[in-house]
């Protein structure tokens, strides 16, 4: 994956690859800073601690002398020393420093599909309109049009970006997003992002239609698991290649693990080595040693690998739970190769290691460096039941997921932020929107999973506190004592157990509209999502909502000429064929192109 940056942007380039979505350097016109609407001036410097020196191999906890691993990034952020402008797509690694502004110009060169790009895990303080969730914070970008995203990196660590237009990211519209900053342990070499994903020879469009039908049974198996876009053919004797990454003997390496799958959860292990975890999603944690790590869809871990073993090649294995409760692949042994410098560059590892018994249970037991404590006396949760129904539509019986008894259906051509711009509070019930009361107060949510399958739950706009999770039904009156209110795990994706409960909390400190959804593509496409409207009255004064109108007007102008609209797919919820979308039996018209490896 490639990326390039300009300081400042002075050139223009356009690249059309893969899905024919491209990003280029440009010279966007920016509005003048405004003390009311904009963030603080970009060179306002508020030190986050005493001078501590520069970030280096023996001082990773310090950042540019004035900030450090204990700086509360929700209170103090370094100034934007740089503005990073992306100039290649799809898939470049976007790399910035803590406090930088990132400008991305997205050009939609596809013929018949819209798109939008979500910056996964980025808090978007005061800039919900940059979140990239079509039908929520913006309209899709129509073919032949472009949109500029401009956001502030108030956190640091490892994340990713992806299309939020239906399951489009399953066709390859993804890339790593790295924000350099302090770390809670020292290391010598940054190996960069390590993206892992399930891979399908069929397109995500066709697979979503297949996964929707009850008659087809379980969701489709992935055809392979890719490591940084590579792997051998899963069943043939030839084709493809293992990904190889080099370790320097005697050095400590930072590796940024990302699960960008549509469906498959992965449990990873490196034969003969442990992982020292220093961050969960975008939250720095006290260094914690693990021999294996479970990554639900959308989750990330920053880990340190100590290359202290004999010079050789070692298998990096990804194992899936065997009962198909959190994904299944046709590749019986998904793996990459970690190669010590000095070992054979072509030979395979000889030790497969101790077999790992994978489950669907997420990781627990991490302690954030920047602490958060919630007053237990204020615990008064709202319950959000999650369930699965099997209604019958024109195509037959389908899977329909719901939160709060509502399968979400967003409006591509009328996002929630446009309602706010227009002063319209007549929100349709189908968009499943909850207005959250209060400012700078803790809000508590019990997600009660009434079906056997687990879900990786992702919340936009917040790092939430995972107060607890377990099996069965949660009773707030009798089970609050099982929760952890004192600096629990904090992240933006958590694995909710099947037939169980999850209790989360977040502070209402970020005005905007924020989507919460399962990150399994088939589930959110079938309705598993909800929206939180936070501090509604403050939104118009914090961001330029009128800037969404040119793109929304372009989308509405495009709709009548689209061969696939009125919508079959709202972007989050796939409707039945024949419901004002493609005629029944015309699913083939979604223009898939078979993608194979090896």
Automatic annotation (TrEMBL):
Known cofactor(s): Cu cation
Enzyme class: oxidoreductase
NADP is among the record's keywords: no
PROSITE patterns: MULTICOPPER_OXIDASE1 (PS00079), MULTICOPPER_OXIDASE2 (PS00080)
Signal peptide residues on this chain, from the entry's feature table: 1-26
EC code(s) of this entry: 1.10.3.2
Keywords, sorted A to Z: Copper, Glycoprotein, Lignin degradation, Metal-binding, Oxidoreductase, Signal
Keyword tRNA processing: no
Catalytic activity field: 4 hydroquinone + O2 = 4 benzosemiquinone + 2 H2O
GO terms under biological process: lignin catabolic process
A Pfam cross-reference name: Cu-oxidase_3
GO MF annotations, alphabetized: copper ion binding; hydroquinone:oxygen oxidoreductase activity
CDD domains the record matches: CuRO_2_MaLCC_like, CuRO_3_MaLCC_like
Plastocyanin-like domain sequence ranges: 88-182, 196-343, 420-536
InterPro entries, per database record: Cu-oxidase-like_N, Cu-oxidase_2nd, Cu-oxidase_C, Cu-oxidase_fam, Cu_oxidase_CS, Cu_oxidase_Cu_BS, Cupredoxin
Family per record: Belongs to the multicopper oxidase family.
Protein name, per record: laccase
